[in-house]
From TrEMBL:
It comes from the Bacteria. This is Transcription elongation factor, GreA/GreB, C-term. GO terms for molecular function: DNA binding; translation elongation factor activity. SUPFAM superfamilies: FKBP-like. It comes from Rheinheimera pacifica. Residues 54-125 form the Transcription elongation factor GreA/GreB C-terminal domain.
Length: 136
């Protein structure tokens, strides 16, 4: 996911920073954990997320713009068991995944990984809802 690289080209370090931003890192900060728990466990938030089609939630496909490098790309926000950096699926408990939960298009994201600030803007959010077939 080249679009997650920091502004300055550091070669191997740039790849490591991009990978760490999208990988599950433990322990989480208290704020990240509170943010995740709020959107997963809270029935009110879950209802608000399900009614807002443009809000990022687990399963959302997101187009991001790296405002430092002017690169853009797509990723999918998923639960930890489904995360795969190579497939572009990032965990909700990764630094970037935790920062994205609850955001809508045009939101700005800023996070720091290995003392490198990464700046993103959410361009597009796609959510697919699978409905149960009607029974006659």
């Amino acid at each position: 996911m080249f679009f997650c690289y920091p502004k300055r080209p550091y070669g191997v370090v740039s790849r490591a920073i991009a990978a760490l931003a999208c990988q599950q890192l433990l322990p989480l900060s208290v704020l990240q954990l509170a943010n995740i728990m709020h959107f997963i466990a809270d029935d009110t938030a879950r209802h608000r997320l399900s009614n807002n089609a443009s809000c990022i939630r687990p399963g959302s496909s997101v187009e991001l713009h790296n405002t430092d490098t002017n690169e853009r790309g797509w990723l999918q926000v998923v639960y930890p068991a489904q995360a795969s950096y190579r497939r572009g699926c990032i965990s909700i408990v990764s630094p970037l995944g935790a920062a994205l939960i609850g955001k809508a298009p045009e939101a700005s994201i800023e996070l720091t990984v290995l003392r490198q600030r990464l700046h993103f803007r959410v361009l597009t959010v796609l959510n697919v809802t699978h409905r149960q077939p009607r029974r006659s």
